[in-house]
Amino acid sequence: GGGGGNPGASGQKYSSYRHSPPLPAEEEPIPGKAQGQKVGPLPDTEKWRRMIRSIPDFPKPGIDFKDITPLLGDAEAFGEVVDTIAGFFSNAGIEKVCGIEARGFILAAPVAHRLGAGFVPIRKHGKLPFTSETASYILEYSEAILEIHSDALASGEKVLVVDDVLATGGTARAAVDLVERLGASVEGFACLIELEFLGGRAALEGHRLESLICY
To answer: Of the listed 28, 46, 140, 205, which one is catalytic?
Structure first.
């Protein structure tokens, strides 16, 4: 995924359901509305936040890692997260959902199913077997590469990009660039966690961004 490590996150404030850009009130999507689902009250995002545990100094000293596995292991919470993301984009005509390796796959695939869309993996370098497009991005003090199959998206297709975490925004920007290079239209980017203090939102300026839990 987009990096569960977050330097200096201890004690950071949090909020929920951050939209970008703001939508007109009459067009505000309703979580859970995708695929004609019955719409109920908004899920308890605080419950989700309590399920996300912080692991200090992992995978290296100074990193406060956000471990989402307890949330994923809870059937109700996992389903609520998937339904909420899908609900935000239920009226966007999404045709493909792209998930970013690796934890982004976990969320993107069921969101695609909810939206009646196809799933497309965006993988790390050397993992895809067919002809691929590549995009590089900065990862701490090194450069990393993401790839997508060159025939994965058709020109003009409406695409949602999903990852677990938005941190500095390098991974997200590279993924969006890949989608747009294939001629598809990025209708939005969605993530479970946004680490606001790292400023990743700026990397997606001009694109709709939905994050469920912000630190």
So the answer is: 140
